[in-house]
Structures are given as structure tokens and as C-alpha cells.
């Protein structure tokens, strides 16, 4: 149920890349270290290992863009991360995804590395992945 709705939003949010399948979402949601922040229309899927949290994906339905949903989801993730004694949140974002980069920059993430030609595109050349990180102060 929820996996199907997440799949639909993810496909709309990432229209120039291979969207995640319903099965991929189902498998991730079964893992006890994976958490879903938000709802099917705007969400973050993240995984905690030791004191690090990786944002696996963040997506918002296009009709809800620029309304603060992703910002609120990130704030909620940071709060939860601190409650779970995480010291770092990291993620990969496509170098051409300017709105996402701006969102993460505003939230205090900094680039720590690049993965050249990491993301395949439906149309055009592969795109670099920027690895971003946010260090957390203790709660």
C-alpha cells in the first residue's frame, strides 16, 4: 500500500532517472534500521547504521514543490537523528539537481566528495553525484 504510493511520487519527482520500484520500497521498509519521514506525497527514506544516517531518497510530489514539505521532513529527520544519538547525516545528490542542493545547503549540509558520472539519465550523459554531509551537535 504505502510502497505503491511512494513509488508513484518517486517516479514523478525523478522523471529523468530510473524510479525505484514498488518492490524496492517494500524491501527497504521491512528493514528495522530504515525509517520513513513524512507521507506518500513528500517523504524521506533514511537508514541508520551506528551513529550515521544516510538519506536514501527524498521526494515530493511536483504539485507540492516549494511549499516547505521537504524542509519540514529534513527538520524532522534531524530531530530524530539527534534522539537516536546520530552524529552525522549524509546523502548523495545529482549535481544537476539545483533545487535539492539548495535545500540541503539551507539545512546546513556541506559537500565532502564527488562521484563522477554516477547517475544515469534517461536522456543525456551521466551526472556526477555530490556527497553531502551534516554534522550534528548532541541533543
UniProtKB/TrEMBL annotation:
Chain ranges of the N-acetyltransferase domain: 1-137
Gene Ontology molecular functions: protein-N-terminal-alanine acetyltransferase activity
Top-level taxon of origin: Bacteria
Pfam families cross-referenced by the UniProt entry: Acetyltransf_1 (PF00583)
Gene3D superfamilies according to UniProt: 3.40.630.30
SUPFAM superfamilies: Acyl-CoA N-acyltransferases (Nat)
InterPro entries (alphabetical): Acyl_CoA_acyltransferase, GNAT_dom, MshD_Acetyltransferase
Keywords: Transferase
Name this polypeptide is given: Ribosomal-protein-alanine N-acetyltransferase
Origin species: Cognatiyoonia sediminum
Amino acid at each position: 500500500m504505502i510502497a505503491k504510493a511512494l513509488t508513484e511520487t518517486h517516479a514523478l519527482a525523478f522523471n529523468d532517472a530510473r524510479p525505484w520500484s514498488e518492490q524496492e520500497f517494500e524491501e527497504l521498509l521491512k528493514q528495522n534500521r530504515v525509517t520513513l519521514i513524512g507521507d506518500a506525497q513528500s517523504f524521506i527514506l533514511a537508514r541508520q547504521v551506528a551513529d550515521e544516517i544516510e538519506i536514501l531518497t527524498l521526494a515530493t510530489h511536483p504539485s507540492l514543490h516549494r511549499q516547505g514539505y521537504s524542509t519540514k521532513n529534513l527538520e524532522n529527520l534531524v530531530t530524530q537523528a539527534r534522539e537516536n544519538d546520530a552524529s552525522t547525516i549524509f546523502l548523495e545528490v545529482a549535481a544537476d539537481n539545483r533545487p535539492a542542493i539548495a535545500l540541503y545547503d539551507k539545512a546546513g549540509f556541506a559537500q565532502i566528495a564527488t562521484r563522477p558520472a554516477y547517475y544515469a539519465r534517461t536522456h543525456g550523459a551521466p551526472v556526477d553525484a555530490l556527497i553531502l554531509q551534516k554534522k550534528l551537535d548532541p541533543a
